[in-house]
Amino acid sequence: MTEPIRILTAVPICDGHDSAILTINLELMRHGVEVIYLGYNRSARDIARAAVQEDVRAVGISSYNGGHIEFFSEVLARLRKWNSSHIGLFGGGGGTITESDAAIMQRRGVDKIFFAGTRFAEMIRFVKERYGRPGVRSTREDIASRFATRKAGAGASRPALVVGITGPGGVGKTTLIDELVLRLLDSCPEQRVAILSHDPSATGKGALLGDRAAMIYSQDDRVFMHSLASRGVAGGLSPATRPWLRCLKRARFDIVLIETVGIGQEAMPFPRSLVDQRVLVMSPDYGSRLQLQKIVMLESADIVVVNKADAPGARTARSEIEHVLDSNARGQKLVETTAKRHGDAGVDELFQTLISP
Ligand code: B12
Fold it and tell me: What is the pTM of this model?
């Protein structure tokens, strides 16, 4: 089967006009494109790094607050620096980008600028025609190794610690991962972390891979993040998860965090052969105790995190989950976190538990 076109989209730094790009993301997705959305207020450096890590065919930028000639040029320069001039660049921005600006931008290497009033069908046609066929193919090894480089002699050669993180959609897995990454960057200055993040998609269909938009600290040269669409595979992972994991281990990342698609009452998506630690993230609003008994993953997780510990019902949730874990008698750990709170003691505890089990 042909690989879907992968496109990274973003809004530049100091710009919060995301309404147009959010609609364009959905249109691209509906037409079979895998869209990795980086969010708004993003620097040229973050955009280029993400484009390389995500192995996209092109970057689409929506720019309204001016400075677009310099900004688009900077993205192109940063792509060149990462040896990735094969990644295309296109965009738009209502009436802010004039025709003469667009002409300068195109002379500098931007593929196309779309003006106010352009129909979505025209943009989709352009994307399919221009980026439909794979150009230069980088191997997974080639991409990952660029971000795993360490100084000679630095760091240990012990195998990567692989942590699988799963749980229902909306419980705050991505925010939790971002906070764990912050702690790793702060406390282990030589270490590098990789994140494999999954979102759902049907076979042969497009996908909106949006976890990067919620990441703040993970936009760092010591962090490698790759978004994967499930492409019809049930259970929260993707056909490409294992090959990517093998490659990240070979590239000697210190920690690999694997975030699943948001899941419900299915069995644990992580076989023992895949990860060292299995973390189930829940929020206090799982429903009744009866619902809790149906969560099979409570049996197989090594660590259960109750996130949103500041939400109503958190104390009840803690004691109900504690009860289940006690009766499992497997020595499973329960940690309460409020990942959205900066410097949360629960996330500190989770981080320590993971790095020194
Ligand atoms: C909606 C809007 C807002 C909303 C934004 C909501 C949101 N979350 O996006 C709100 C009210 C919050 C807002 C705030 C501000 N805004 Co405003 N805003 C607009 C407005 C009216 C429409 C932009 C829009 O979304 N259009 C809808 C899209 C779908 O259509 P389009 O723009 O024509 O885009 C087409 C193509 O360009 C293409 N396209 C666009 N992007 C991309 C990307 C890709 C990849 C592709 C393929 C195609 C593509 O798709 C469209 C299809 O036809 C414009 C004026 C205008 N008419 O452009 C001002 C405008 C952009 N805003 C402006 C300003 C000044 C501001 C504020 C600074 C105001 C203030 N003082 O607070 C703030 C800044 C906010 C911030 N954090 O950045 C100025 C910018 C001036 C400049 N660059 O010099 C404008 C031009 C208004 C003006 N004339 O003064 N704004």
Answer: 0.95
